[in-house]
Write the structure tokens for this entry.
Amino acid sequence: MKKLALVNLLLATAIGLSACGKYNDDIQQYAQNALRQATSRIEELPKVNTFVAMKFEPKTDRMPFVLPKPEISMVQPLKPLDCEQPDRERAMEELEQFALDNLFMKGTISIDGKLKAIIQTADGVLVNVTPGMHMGLNFGKVVRVAPDSVEVEEFISDGKGCWDKRNSRIDLITAE
């Protein structure tokens, strides 16, 4: 009985191994096809240009780690112009250091019958504004204070020495 079991085991092993041989041929054929189709050409590395050092002359060359200075245009001789000019002689007011885009209207208040706008700067300071005051970077003058807006008349340079007037408005910011 033991001999019969041993013979059956050997026979099953032989049949199993012979079946593996069939699949082994397929694997070998696949490997040969893959080797034939594989590219064996490796592209050459690009040639590296040789570095040529330049001699640095500090008196004539620009310093490599310092930002270049902006070019200065030729100063035009001062001559009287027959066009409208902003008043450059007056003292600058507090809100003239901010662009109009950085000023926000927060509300209005009436003091002695005069309507004043409450303007907040970008750094959070509140300033009461009345007509005639100046604000913005372009010599802006407050023309009118309304319950929901402030109208400002600015001077815009035309690049030739004259100035054009432009009206701008700062609207009241409402809560969302």
The mean pLDDT is 82. Strands lie at 104-111, 114-120, 126-129, 134-135, 140-146, 149-157, 163-171.
